[in-house]
Amino acid sequence: MGMAYFPVFTFLFMVCLCQSDDRLTHAKPLLPGNVLISDSGVFAIGFFSLKNSSSSSYVGIWYNNIPERTYVWIANRDNPITTNVPGKLIFTNSSDLVLLDSTGRTIWTTTNNITAGGGETAAVLLDSGNLVVRSPNGTGIWESFYYPTDTMRFIAWKGPNDPSSSIFSMGGDLISDLQIVIWNGIRPYWRRAAWVGEMVLGTFQGNSSFRMFQTIEYTGDGYYIKVTVSDGSPSIRITLDYTGMLTFRRWNSSMSSWTVFEKFPSSTCDQTEYVPTCKCLDGYEPNGLSFSQGCRRKEELKCGGGDSFLTLPTMKTPDKFLYIQNRSFDQCTAECSHNCSCSACAYASLKNVDATLDQTRCLVWMGELVDVQKFGSTFGENLYLRVPRSPVSKKEGTVLKIVVPVMATFLLLITCIWLVLKARVKHQSRKVQKNLLCLNPSNELGNENLEFPSVSFEDIITATNNFSDYKMLGKGGFGKVYKGMWEGGKEVAVKRLSKWFCARDSGV
């Protein structure tokens, strides 16, 4: 997409009511002991030496209204003046600013190569802290914001009292221009996740006294990050220090010092340079006994189908992605699913970019996922992780582990209760049948539905001739057995239980 990120910072600071000269011209160079002050007295530029090295002098810009001397830009940071007498900052005929030492040797210079005509070129110090070289018609031809320091365009100091360039720097990703990176030499040390097209990158609420906003602005020649603070806020300073830490500070007037209210990387897990010792994504496990060797897949992808995508919300998308333009969401996921090496993909619609540019953003990752982590509920984007099959989440697995044993125990209990009740019903049925057999002749069985054929007592009396002795076939311990004859000539044997048996079974 060809976007470039250049940090541009707009601050609202305490205002001085004094009037001071804020410009340098051919006729008025900057000499030792002279100080140029911005129109509202916010910033000043002049010669200075650091506390630990009075033999080296620099030309730089600092906060004018803050008692603790704080530098925001140094012209000759990598080449201090080492002579006993500082030099001077002058204009050349080609509209270049040149810093000379006392011997006339060039220490630092701009490279404008523009011959002024019909007027005078001037360098003006603005209330934003930006030193701007303007042509006679007022056009800006050079700005200090575009050149290295630790506060505006980020190249860290080498040490707390050494302003020379260190190995830590910060700027846009050289490959895609979609993310901001802090570099440790040539290696990425920390990065902000790939841009998803939002105009407001973030809001920092230090306390109830101020709020800071980060927004994206398009100026025709690229996209810029703009940082602003609310009215009445204290002075705000954003620096990249010699340890590689990006810090956000506000001036605490009650303590007369700078207070850090935000910093990046916020933890070891936030560093791109090292393998994070945090946690693995779903479907991954530690590559060894700990996280020090990173994570590996629990189940390898199988090329040829059967894979799916697991949606991971509010994620910091990984580094080392392949940026594919002019793709819809379905086309983006297809790019990943059709490539056996693809591990994940992410998609965003860049609705806020210039309408003449591609407004789609398809990112795919091949192989290992580097520097990926879970954000909070308000940041990050969906990362579509390619998995062999739709996995059961840990929560679902935990629920199944609890529910299945409980259900099995419940079903077993119900079965046992049913068997006990069935046995009791059967026992009661048999007891009722036995009691019916013990009824005296005045009782009637009626037509109750028993487990044997229903025969009335009158029919038994008739068949046995009222239990006549000559019908008796034999006698046992529980009663006498009689021969009977049903209607139709069918012979039967009838056993009449004794009164002793019936009384015993009834508990009498």
TrEMBL record:
<keyword id="KW-0067">ATP-binding</keyword>
<dbReference type="InterPro" id="IPR011009">
    <property type="entry name" value="Kinase-like_dom_sf"/>
</dbReference>
<keyword id="KW-0547">Nucleotide-binding</keyword>
<feature type="transmembrane region" description="Helical">
    <location>
        <begin position="399"/>
        <end position="421"/>
    </location>
</feature>
<dbReference type="InterPro" id="IPR036426">
    <property type="entry name" value="Bulb-type_lectin_dom_sf"/>
</dbReference>
<dbReference type="Pfam" id="PF01453">
    <property type="entry name" value="B_lectin"/>
</dbReference>
<dbReference type="GO" id="GO:0051707">
    <property type="term" value="P:response to other organism"/>
</dbReference>
<keyword id="KW-0675">Receptor</keyword>
<dbReference type="InterPro" id="IPR017441">
    <property type="entry name" value="Protein_kinase_ATP_BS"/>
</dbReference>
<dbReference type="GO" id="GO:0005524">
    <property type="term" value="F:ATP binding"/>
</dbReference>
<keyword id="KW-0472">Membrane</keyword>
<feature type="domain" description="Apple">
    <location>
        <begin position="303"/>
        <end position="388"/>
    </location>
</feature>
<feature type="signal peptide">
    <location>
        <begin position="1"/>
        <end position="20"/>
    </location>
</feature>
<dbReference type="Pfam" id="PF08276">
    <property type="entry name" value="PAN_2"/>
</dbReference>
<dbReference type="InterPro" id="IPR003609">
    <property type="entry name" value="Pan_app"/>
</dbReference>
<keyword id="KW-0732">Signal</keyword>
<feature type="domain" description="Bulb-type lectin">
    <location>
        <begin position="21"/>
        <end position="146"/>
    </location>
</feature>
<dbReference type="GO" id="GO:0004674">
    <property type="term" value="F:protein serine/threonine kinase activity"/>
</dbReference>
<protein>
    <recommendedName>
        <fullName>non-specific serine/threonine protein kinase</fullName>
        <ecNumber>2.7.11.1</ecNumber>
    </recommendedName>
</protein>
<keyword id="KW-0812">Transmembrane</keyword>
<feature type="domain" description="Protein kinase">
    <location>
        <begin position="467"/>
        <end position="508"/>
    </location>
</feature>
<dbReference type="InterPro" id="IPR001480">
    <property type="entry name" value="Bulb-type_lectin_dom"/>
</dbReference>
<dbReference type="GO" id="GO:0048544">
    <property type="term" value="P:recognition of pollen"/>
</dbReference>
<dbReference type="InterPro" id="IPR000858">
    <property type="entry name" value="S_locus_glycoprot_dom"/>
</dbReference>
<feature type="binding site">
    <location>
        <position position="495"/>
    </location>
    <ligand>
        <name>ATP</name>
    </ligand>
</feature>
<keyword id="KW-1015">Disulfide bond</keyword>
<dbReference type="InterPro" id="IPR000719">
    <property type="entry name" value="Prot_kinase_dom"/>
</dbReference>
<keyword id="KW-1133">Transmembrane helix</keyword>
<dbReference type="GO" id="GO:0016020">
    <property type="term" value="C:membrane"/>
</dbReference>
<dbReference type="Pfam" id="PF00954">
    <property type="entry name" value="S_locus_glycop"/>
</dbReference>
